[in-house]
Amino acid sequence: MHEAMKACLDIKKETDTLLRSEYGQLTARQYLILAAISEHGESASLTEVARDNRLSTQAARTFVNRLGERGYLTVVGSQTGDKRKIVIRLTEAGEGIVSACPESHLDIDHKLVREQLNAVMANADRFFEAWACSSR
């Protein structure tokens, strides 16, 4: 299982390195935050961004704040009057990053990544099956 986890971290590190070489201090997770907002159209709620990125709203807010400080997005008040609902919009700079960085531009060997992820999932399945059997 440790090897599978290390493989996932290696993939993340390679992706972060590619993004940083092209776009400065942008990480893969930060790019995915920007892409999630873009996929929702003109704006997205913090809850939508968190859900799309499999994050808690608290964790998503940390990414949103950092990206806002860098000028990639803006946080606007609620459009429905509910102060708990935070609406996020990409700035021109944020839109530029999303449009300039389509998946095909990342130069990642998608077949290799798929193979690595399949191996990770197979190892995870074996780990959880063994764990479930040992806890009985």
Question: Which key phrases capture this entry?
Answer:
three-stranded antiparallel beta sheet, mainly alpha, 136 residues, 3 strands
What does this structure look like?
The protein has 136 residues and is mainly alpha-helical. 65% of the residues lie in helices and 7% in strands. The chain has helices at 2-23, 28-39, 46-52, 57-69, 92-100, 110-134, and strands at 44-45, 73-76, 87-90. Strands 1-3-2 form a three-stranded antiparallel beta sheet. The protein starts with a helix and ends with a helix.
Helix/strand structural class: mainly alpha
Q: What percentage of the residues does DSSP assign to strands (E)?
A: 5-15%
Mean pLDDT: 80
> What percent of the residues sit in helical stretches (DSSP H or I)?
55-70%
Total beta-strand segments: 3
Count the DSSP helices.
6
Biggest β-sheet: strands ordered side by side in the sheet:
1-3-2
Biggest sheet features: 3 strands, antiparallel
Poorly predicted parts:
none
Write the layout of secondary structure elements.
Elements: H1 2-23, H2 28-39, E1 44-45, H3 46-52, H4 57-69, E2 73-76, E3 87-90, H5 92-100, H6 110-134
Antiparallel strand pairs: 1-3, 2-3
Helix pairs in contact: 1-6, 2-4, 2-5, 3-4
Quick overview:
With 136 residues, the chain is mostly helical. The protein has helices at residues 2-23, 28-39, 46-52, 57-69, 92-100, 110-134; strands at residues 44-45, 73-76, 87-90. α1 runs antiparallel to α6 (110-134), α2 crosses α4 and α3 (46-52) packs across α4.
